[in-house]
């Protein structure tokens, strides 16, 4: 029975860690995208003269 509770503990730890990693990775990706578009904007909104 000790093995079962140990597996449940690992599963609970995984469930609590996966959303945190997902939010961090998505926020890093969107921050990188926003900074890139700040310095190199799209030519649709800033047309060349």
TrEMBL record:
Pfam families, per database record: PSI_PsaJ
Location within or outside the cell: Cellular thylakoid membrane
Segments crossing the lipid bilayer: 12-40
Gene3D superfamilies hit by this protein: Single helix bin (1.20.5.510)
Topological category with respect to the lipid bilayer: Single-pass membrane protein
Family of the protein in this entry: Belongs to the PsaJ family.
Alphabetic keyword roster: Membrane, Thylakoid, Transmembrane, Transmembrane helix
Protein name per its UniProtKB record: PsaJ protein
Principal location listed in the UniProt entry: membrane
InterPro entries: PSI_PsaJ, PSI_PsaJ_sf
Keyword Membrane among record annotations: yes
């Amino acid at each position: 029975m000790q093995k079962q509770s140990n597996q449940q503990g690992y599963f609970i730890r995984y469930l609590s860690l996966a959303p945190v990693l997902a939010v961090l990775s998505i926020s890093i990706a969107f921050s990188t995208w926003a900074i890139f578009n700040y310095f190199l904007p799209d030519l649709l909104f800033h047309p060349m003269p």
